[in-house]
């Protein structure tokens, strides 16, 4: 077997505080990689969420350049949002660039790979956005048949990880992790790729379900709770899968273990559209009797100046003349409206009147020449300690829980970076690592020049 030149092991949502500190003794392989190579916190994108972050990491282009600001994108000439897909991506990713250089790639469950490509040099299984295991999740029928015979039905995601009944979540996360790593190793051993990459979504699902059980600093932490020991056991599994994968790497293989962002305790949520209703920016023709998505409400667009979207952060849009179908805010009014909204959002206090560290950004503050339809304002409630709830009908600005189900975690800007290998072998802790540095480092190790317009520094040249 010819070892890959580059292996990227992505562990979705793995935070430095857990991987580098709390569970370091349960991750001897990762600790050994740190001792032998370079490591440090890896700064994510704005916003620090799955789709923009992994696409930025694998394309070398920031969200503003990509025009991708979340899981869903604005539909031109409409108030609707559609789920983002590879068709929305205009630029090549690492495996596309490798294929153009005549190199083979094996790609397992990297976000925004459904439907998977059919390039002959790329063996791919699709990501968690795949509708089901009955969908076309492999890059060829022969690959699908081979993998199903060896590993059983493809596990797309961990189902129902936001639920009060957590009984099956641990085993589901472990099954997902084992299967996807097994597929990656099989592809490395049989396809001999120059570039190999996996994104294991298991850690993200595990943290959303169990962060309060495993993180002592979590306000709801119970050291005697029924899931208190699950964190160490799951992190030990992750480490064993990393170790088994490293057995397929050669001495010059550049191995990067990375996460797209970290996690932090979720303290509650802010109902952004309830706030906009209270302040007179959003007007409904009638209020719903129960919490309802804004798309299901009778919005009086002729009187609405702004509305928001929920999720890990708030995306707020003005109802602008000429941009929205029934826009009422003129271009001359936009700066004034944004200033007023920024003040309202920054000054919002917590449910008990306590101050919150609310951070509000315009597109120009986050991105250079943003494309597509960026939010007019991006809001990180309490510095991402609180989610944004987009539904209306709660009768309150604050809620204690996420409107998509019980949740222990929100996202944090810092993920992890650990690297070993390459001709130049940087050692020790590195500061200032950016998510685009993974892209630049992988291309450097593959001997491919970065395309014009991409960003990032190769860690091999630090």
Provide an overview of this structure.
- This protein is globular.
- Strand 11 (306-309) and strand 12 (314-318) form a beta hairpin.
- It has helices spanning 16-22, 28-36, 50-59, 63-66, 94-100, 141-151, 169-191, 202-214, 230-246, 272-278, 334-347, 363-366, 436-446, and strands at residues 6-11, 38-43, 72-74, 81-83, 105-108, 122-125, 195-200, 254-258, 262-265, 268-271, 306-309, 314-318, 359-361, 377-380, 386-389, 398-399, 409-412, 414-420, 428-429, 433-434.
- It contains 13 helices and 20 strands.
- Strands 1, 2, 5, 6, 7, 8, 18, 19 and 20 form a nine-stranded mixed sheet that branches.
- With 462 residues, it is α/β, with parallel strands linked by helices.
- It has two domains: 6-265 and 411-461, Alkaline Phosphatase, subunit A (3-Layer(aba) Sandwich); 268-406, no CATH class.
- It starts with 5 loop residues before the first strand and ends in a 16-residue tail after the last helix.
